[in-house]
Amino acid sequence: MGDCIHNILYLGLIFVLIIFQTWEKMKRTVFFVLITLIIGDLNAQVRYGINPESVLSIQGTSNIHDWTSKANTINGEFSLMKAAGDRNLPKNGKLVDKLRLEVPVKSIESGRGPVMDGKTYDALKSEEFPNIIFVVKENNITGITDNATGKFGLSVTGDLTIAGSTKPVTINVSSQRIQGNSFRFEGSYSLNMTEYDIEPPTALFGQITTGEEVTIVFNILIDVMK
């Protein structure tokens, strides 16, 4: 009888130890799950679409006059960190999780007729490389300009591809959160066409020549996708 009671107590003790160990493992598992969920929530992204009021133009010079061509189509994929929707924007750190802009070359028009536009398309090798592409690799909020109006600075580094040639670029962007969770990104970037293996267009058998330096000017509006 005594041995039987001893065995029962022994088995009971083992059972309690198993329950205790299982509970400790469950607590650790729950803890790690909660931490993962919290971190995941902090790093969550929100997808945005490009507002049709966005504007992108290319400005340059010639031996006769300055010129401006406008892109009639801007395609893109945007996702911002969840912190972008907070009441107060962070003073530094990453804002853009993903950004890819594409401008169809043949959507660019100079307003000076199809002949000049055709020369632009040829210079940009539109048949072989139909899109100008910009993909963000790194970005960082450089400071809050005006918290009341949602204005802040953003430094963006990425790859710019024109006519099949890709170069790393860094652009300082004037940014603003407007109308809740919509954003405006404004800025410009100057480049030499020859760096992208582009021969500056000419007209009238070379009597009109364009300068090698051009400036891409942008005013991009994005809205939360529904």
Short synopsis of the structure:
By secondary structure, this protein is α+β, with helices and mostly antiparallel strands. The protein contains two helices and twelve strands; from the N terminus they run H-E-E-E-E-E-E-H-E-E-E-E-E-E.
Question: What are the defining features of this structure?
Answer:
48% strand, alpha+beta, 23% helix, 226 residues
Architecture overview:
The protein has 226 residues and is α+β, with helices and mostly antiparallel strands. Helices cover 23% and strands 48% of the residues. It has 2 helices and 12 strands, in the order H-E-E-E-E-E-E-H-E-E-E-E-E-E. It has helices at 2-42, 114-123, and strands at 45-50, 55-62, 67-71, 75-81, 96-104, 108-109, 131-146, 151-162, 165-178, 182-192, 202-203, 208-224. It has an 8-stranded antiparallel beta barrel with strand order 1-4-5-7-8-9-10-12. The longest helix is centred in the N-terminal third of the chain and has 41 residues, at 2-42. The protein is elongated. Mean pLDDT is 80; it is low at 29-43.
